[in-house]
Amino acid sequence: MRAWMKSGTPWVWITAGMVSVSLIAILGVLLLIGARGLGYFWPTPITQFTLNTPEGQETVIGQIYQTDRVDATQLQDAGITLPEDATPDYARLVVKIGNREREGVDFRQLLAFNIRSQYTPASLAMIERVENGVFYGWPVALVDEKGTRHRLDEADLEARLDALSARRDVIDDIERVHLASVNYQLEQLRLEEKRWALAHTANREPPAHIAEQRAQLLDQYSQLEKKLESLRHHQDDAMLVVKDSHHEEVLLPLRNVLAVWYPNAMSGIEKLLFWGHQIGAFVSEPPRDGNASGGVFPAIFGTVFLVLLMAVIVTPLGVIAAVYLHEYAPKTAFTRMIRIAVVNLAGVPSIVYGVFGLGFFVYFIGGSIDELFYQAAQPAPVFGTPGVLWSALTLAILTLPVVIVSTEEGLARIPTSVRHGAFALGATQAETLWRVVLPMASPAMMTGLILAVARAAGEVAPLMLVGVVKVAPALPVDGNFPFLHLERKFMHLGYHIYDLGFQSTHIESARPLVYATSFLLVSVIVALNLAAIGIRHYLREKYRDLEQ
To answer: Ranges for the ABC transmembrane type-1 domain (predicted)?
Structure first.
């Protein structure tokens, strides 16, 4: 036994066991998030419940959200009359009932012993809307623009909804692209005019071309407004008549309806297509209804753009610092202190970096830039306010120690004989560094970048101080010169998760989206890391001959 212990075999098995447990735990977390997140988009059947209440029978319709058990004592304390055959606990169903403007709540708890019957009629529909969430009921008729009631025709309804969706896309394109472009150009003219006035205090009359361009832009703006007004006027004013759980007919404006689905009547293939459609909409559309529904495309774009911008900033800074420390800096106590400080910086809480970024980057550097180059925009700040550039710089400082340490470790693994061989062939130190050492150390640089991306993509606390917002009016990239607007605020998947989980006005309804967004964030991080790992593998194979 003692010989077996000294051989080190038990420690090998213990290490392997711990690694296996860690992998199982990670896979378990990913499976939980993936199942909860992707399962949210699967068409859950709509159930019609008939309840026995003290006031008589009541009908409730909705989708079963979860099932649990509640203690009998807790029910008695709440004043609920229990059945005669008492048990320690009772089954309880949490049902998403929708119809927010009529019911006042999104969910309702039903005790199993109060349920007289429940079934899933094929005619029950889930009506997806622009505002107020989903509506559950039985579509029975359509009231046209003239107020005439017609029997519901599914083909006609689908055609109307398709036309409304196409017109809604045109309106959105005009508002977000064309009108935004005209407003941007008008703002640039205003700033140019103000700069002229500041530079020519004796003659404040602006150049003639400014007035001409403003007149042209205002005319273009007026034409776009007329086109928008025409499109909105021609939006379908029809009303969808839906019978709700109280057997009352409710008029839903068709312009507020996105789609009408019948989950109970769907086949397996139709459910799979619905699931794929909902996931595609979640990934490609902007959020709506206070972030409680819709998609997360702006947050995906903001996260990826921020990480890529951070990588462009941190990689050269980290490599240069590591090269200096390893290749040029003398081996003194001061250099050792710098290395210790770099390592310790990796343990500083991320919120501290956020405070530093707000004070140094936003207020000091950004304020100085505004004072020197954007006086015409005063008092409104341009760079002296949180934005994507300052967020990227803050994350670059946060992840800089990781890149420095990884690069320096890679430089230390390169044999000294390689450098001496290059010197013997007549290369200078700079040429040796650029043509031999750095290419051989490039896999280690990519390792540092992978670690930096993995940490930066999930950070939220510092971003809340230096640029991230709940809803961004525009993406950091658009068709207006200079096309890349680093001063703008942006959305982020991590902050979107925080907002859904803690700040949403409809927390229970939005909670499943927390899992979906979390799974999406993990997927984005994995995709970015896989891309970096692929580049590292390519570089390692490319420069493998130099190591031999």
So the answer is: 300-532
